[in-house]
Design a protein that fits this description.
The structure holds 2 protein chains of 2 kinds.
Chain A lengths: L3 H14 L2 H18 L1 H8 L11 E2 L5 E2 L22 H36 L2 H16 L2 H11 L6 H12 L2 H15 L2 H8 L4 H37 L11 H6 L9 H29 L1 H18 L1
Antiparallel strand pairs in A: 1-2
Helix pairs in contact in A: 1-12, 2-4, 2-12, 3-4, 4-5, 4-7, 4-8, 4-10, 5-8, 6-7, 8-10, 9-10, 10-12, 12-13
Chain B lengths: L1 H31 L4 H6 L5 H10 L6 H14 L1 E4 L4 E4 L6 E2 L4 E2 H36 L4 H15 L2 H15 L15 H35 L2 H8 L4 H39 L4 H11 L2 H29 L2 H4 L1
Antiparallel strand pairs in B: 1-2, 3-4
Helix pairs in contact in B: 1-12, 5-6, 5-8, 5-10, 5-12, 6-8, 7-8, 7-10, 8-10, 10-11, 10-12, 11-12
The chains are: A mainly alpha, B mainly alpha.
C-alpha cells in the first residue's frame, strides 16, 4: 500500500482503464484538443485560412453554390468551400474546434471557481451567511441558462471580445448546481474527525478550507465539471446558432449551421461537418464524463450491477 | 394531511420569494449595467426629446429603488404612461412598453404565448412517454441486445443538440422526402388537426433530445429499485416479472422522473427557443431572439421574467407531485 493520495489517483486510473467506452472517448477528446491546439499548423499545411473569401470558387450566377464536385473539394480545399463566400471549410472547422472547446472549458472554469467559493463559504460561514448564499444559489438555479445568456448577450457592448464574453456569461449564470454539491460535500467533510482535529489545533478557517477540505471536494467537483463541459459546448453552439454567441468572422460550429439548411443539396458537407463535429465532441465528452463518474464513485456502478445480478438469480 | 398542506404552502411561499428575487436581479442587471438606458430602451432612431420622455416614464432619473418600485407597481396594479399629450394605460400585470415596436410588452408576450405553450407541453407529453417507455424497456430487457441498442440510441440523443436534430429532421422529412410540409403555425382554435400536423416535427425535435435524459434516469432508477429487498419479496411470492417491472419497479422511478422534469424544464424552454427559431414558429422564443438582436430592452426583461415565472411554477408543481409520489419528502 502506498500513500493514500497516490493510491487514490492510481485507483482512479485503474477504474477508468476497465471501461472501454470511456477510454475510446478519452482518445477522441485528446485528438480534438490536439486539433484545436494545432489549428494554425493544420491550416498552414493545407495552405488556407478561415477568413479569406474566395469569390472565384463559387458560382455567383447560381446563388453562390461552390464550383466543382462535392461542394468544391480539391487538393487546395480539403473539405470544400463555404457557399456564397468561398471560405475554406476545413480551416473554419478546425478553428471552430478552438472556439467550441475553448469557450466550454473557460466557462467550466468560471462555474467551478464560483461554485466552489460560494459552496464552501456557505458551508463554513455562520448560519446567516449560509442562509443568504443558499437562497441566492436557489435563485440562480431557477434562472434558465439559455434565456439569461441570450438576454445578457444582448446588452453587453459588441466591442468586448465575443468568445470571452460567451464563456463569462455561461460561467456567471450556471454555477448554481455545483455550489449546491460543494456545500453538501463540505458539510459532510466538516463533520469528520480530521477536520475537527485541524480545528482543535487552532488552524484558521481558510487554512482548513484550503488544506483539508479542498482535496476532499476534488472527486465530486471533477465529476460534475466533466459533465458540465459537454453541456457548455452545446450552449455555446446554440447561442452562436441563434446569432448572439460568437460573431463572424470568428468561426464557430453553431454559427456555421445557421445558414447550412439552405445548402443541403448543393453542399451537404456544409451542414454535415459542423453537425458531425458537434455530435462527436459532445458524445465523446459525455461518455468520458460518465466514465470519470464511475471511476470516482464506484458505488453508482456497483449498484447498477447488483440490479443485473439479481435478475440472473431470479431467472436461475 | 395538514403536513402535506403546510408543505405545499411553504413551497409556494418560497416560490414567490424566488420570483421576487429574480425580478430584482433581472431589473438591476438590465437597467443598471448598460450605458444610456433611456437611449437603449427607446431604440437607435429616437430623438433626444423622445429619449427624455422615456427617461421620465421609467423614472430613470430617480434612485434605483424608486425605479424598481414603479416597475413592481406596474406588475401588480398596472401603470399609466403619460406621453405629454395623452395617457396610455397599461393594466396589471404590466411589463412596460416596447418603444421599438410601439406595443405593450404584456400584450406582445400574450399574443405569442399559445405557440410556445403548444410546443412545450405537446413535446413534454411526447418526451415523458418516449423517455420513460425506453427506460422501462431497457430495464426490462437488461443484459440483452435490446438494452444495448437502446443505451446507444439514448446516448446519441443526449449528445445531439436540439437544433441539429431539428435541422436534420426538417431536411429529411420536409425537404428530401416531402412527407410533411415545412411547419407553419396554425392555432389550435382554428384547426386542431392542422395544429397537430404542423407541430409534429417541432415536437419530435424537442422531445427526442429531452427523452434521452429521461430514458437514462428511468433505467437507472428502476435497476436500483429492482435491487431492493421488497422486490425480492415480490419475486419470492411468485409475482410475475412483467408486474414486478411494470408496477413495482416503475413506482421507484416515478419520483426521480418528476424531479428531472422540473429540473429540465428550464433547459427545455431554452430548447423551445431554438426549435421556434429553427422552424420559424412565431412563439415567445422567436420574439426573444428578435428582441435580443435589436436590443429591445423592455421586451427582453419581460420575456426573462415570464419564462422565469413558468420555470419557478413548474418547480413548485414538481415539488408537490414529488411529495405525492414519495411521502418521505414532506417530513424532511
Amino acid at each position: 500500500m502506498s500513500a493514500p493520495g497516490a493510491s487514490g489517483a492510481r485507483q482512479f486510473w485503474r477504474r477508468l482503464r476497465t471501461q472501454r467506452a470511456a477510454l475510446v472517448a478519452a482518445v477522441v477528446v485528446a485528438l480534438l484538443v490536439l486539433v484545436a491546439l494545432a489549428a494554425p499548423l493544420l491550416t498552414a499545411i493545407e495552405g488556407q485560412d478561415p477568413t479569406t473569401y474566395h469569390p472565384s470558387l463559387v458560382d455567383s450566377a447560381r446563388g453562390g453554390v461552390p464550383i466543382g464536385s462535392f461542394g468544391g473539394v480539391s487538393a487546395d480545399h480539403w473539405l470544400g468551400v463555404e457557399p456564397q463566400t468561398g471560405r475554406d471549410l476545413f480551416a473554419r472547422l478546425v478553428y471552430g474546434a478552438r472556439v467550441s472547446l475553448g469557450v466550454a472549458l473557460a466557462a467550466t472554469v468560471v462555474q467551478v471557481a464560483i461554485g466552489v467559493v460560494v459552496g464552501v463559504a456557505a458551508a463554513l460561514g455562520s448560519r446567516w451567511v449560509d442562509q443568504l448564499l443558499s437562497r441566492f444559489t436557489d435563485v440562480i438555479v431557477a434562472m434558465p441558462l439559455m434565456i439569461m445568456a441570450l438576454a445578457l448577450l444582448a446588452i453587453v457592448p459588441s466591442s468586448f471580445p465575443r468568445p470571452v464574453l460567451v464563456a463569462l456569461v455561461i460561467g456567471l449564470i450556471a454555477w448554481g448546481s455545483i455550489a449546491k454539491i460543494v456545500r453538501a460535500q463540505t458539510l459532510t467533510l466538516k463533520g469528520l474527525d480530521y477536520v475537527a482535529a485541524a480545528r482543535l489545533s487552532g488552524w484558521r478557517t481558510w487554512r482548513i478550507a484550503v488544506r483539508e477540505l479542498l482535496p476532499g471536494l476534488a472527486a465530486p467537483v471533477i465529476t460534475y465539471a466533466a459533465l458540465l463541459i459537454p453541456q457548455n459546448i452545446t450552449v455555446e453552439a446554440a447561442l452562436s446558432f441563434l446569432g448572439v454567441g460568437v460573431k463572424p468572422p470568428t468561426p464557430s460550429w453553431g454559427q456555421m449551421l445557421t445558414a447550412a439548411d439552405v445548402w443541403y443539396q448543393a453542399a451537404p458537407q456544409y451542414l454535415l461537418l459542423p453537425a458531425g463535429a458537434l455530435f462527436v465532441t459532445v458524445l465523446a465528452l459525455t461518455v468520458l464524463g460518465d466514465g470519470v463518474r464511475t471511476a470516482l464513485d464506484p458505488r453508482a456502478a456497483s449498484r447498477l450491477r447488483v440490479g443485473t445480478g439479481r435478475k440472473r438469480e431470479a431467472k436461475a | 394531511m395538514s403536513g402535506f398542506g403546510g408543505f405545499a404552502l411553504r413551497r409556494t411561499v418560497g416560490a414567490v420569494v424566488t420570483l421576487f428575487a429574480i425580478s430584482v436581479i433581472v431589473y438591476v442587471v438590465f437597467y443598471v449595467t448598460p450605458g444610456n438606458v433611456a437611449q437603449i430602451t427607446c431604440g437607435p432612431r429616437c430623438s433626444p426629446a423622445q429619449v427624455q420622455q422615456v427617461a421620465e416614464q421609467l423614472h430613470l432619473n430617480d434612485p434605483l429603488y424608486t425605479q424598481y418600485w414603479h416597475f413592481l407597481q406596474g406588475l401588480v396594479v398596472g401603470q399609466d404612461y403619460s406621453t405629454g399629450t395623452s395617457v396610455e394605460h397599461c393594466s396589471a400585470p404590466c411589463l412596460g412598453l416596447s418603444y421599438q415596436s410601439d406595443q405593450q410588452v404584456t400584450a406582445l408576450i400574450l399574443a405569442k404565448l399559445p405557440v410556445s405553450l403548444s410546443l412545450v407541453f405537446g413535446a413534454m407529453v411526447l418526451w415523458l412517454i418516449l423517455g420513460v417507455g425506453t427506460g422501462v424497456l431497457s430495464a426490462w430487457r437488461r443484459g440483452r441486445l435490446t438494452e444495448r441498442l437502446l443505451t446507444g440510441v439514448t446516448l446519441a440523443g443526449v449528445a445531439t443538440p436540439v437544433f441539429v436534430i431539428g435541422l436534420v429532421l426538417m431536411i429529411v422529412v420536409c425537404g428530401q422526402f416531402q412527407l410533411l410540409p415545412f411547419p407553419q403555425y396554425v392555432a389550435f382554435t382554428d384547426d386542431p388537426e392542422q395544429w397537430a400536423w404542423n407541430l409534429l416535427l417541432p415536437w419530435l425535435s424537442l422531445a427526442l433530445i429531452e427523452a434521452a435524459a429521461f430514458a437514462r434516469l428511468t433505467r437507472a432508477a428502476m435497476l436500483e429499485t429492482l435491487a431492493e429487498d421488497h422486490i425480492r419479496t415480490f419475486r419470492a411470492y411468485g409475482v410475475g416479472e412483467r408486474s414486478v417491472i411494470g408496477r413495482h419497479a416503475l413506482r421507484g422511478a416515478l419520483a426521480p422522473v418528476i424531479a428531472l422534469n422540473a429540473n429540465n424544464f428550464g433547459s427545455a424552454v431554452g430548447g423551445a427557443v431554438l426549435t421556434e427559431t429553427l422552424f420559424g414558429l412565431p412563439g415567445i422564443g422567436q420574439e426573444l431572439v428578435h428582441a435580443v438582436n435589436v436590443v429591445d430592452l423592455p421586451v427582453v426583461v419581460g420575456m426573462v421574467l415570464v419564462i422565469g415565472f413558468f420555470v419557478v411554477v413548474a418547480n413548485v408543481v414538481a415539488d408537490v407531485l414529488y411529495a405525492v409520489a414519495d411521502r418521505r419528502v414532506v417530513l424532511a
